[in-house]
Amino acid sequence: MSYTAPLKDMLFDIEHLANIGEIAKLPGFEDAGLETAQAVLEECARFNQDVVAPLNVAGDRDPSSFKGGVVTTTAGFKEAFAQYVSGGWQGLQHPADFGGQGLPKTIGAACGEMLNSA
Fold this sequence. Notes:
Blueprint: H1 7-17, H2 20-23, H3 34-52, H4 55-61, E1 65-67, E2 70-72, H5 77-86, H6 105-117
Antiparallel strand pairs: 1-2
Helix pairs in contact: 1-3, 3-6
């Protein structure tokens, strides 16, 4: 199964509807303008298209299980989650003081949508 993130649409929304230029004027978000949003969304799209989406068929055919007190995940899920964590995707919109990247929720929401869609 394939997934292609609608980057053009997401970036249009972030620029014209969410007005990322104005968000980037707020204290703490000065580096989170359209260029940053585009770079983050492009990398997030690659991760979800190349790593997450291809696991769907395997997950359907051989789902995770719990037997005898042991959880066994579908092949590839553990490695994909490790990549998700090492990429910092879980902390995009959380404050840097707590290990996040401190980006606006606008960017985090778009990345969350890609993950859910993939």
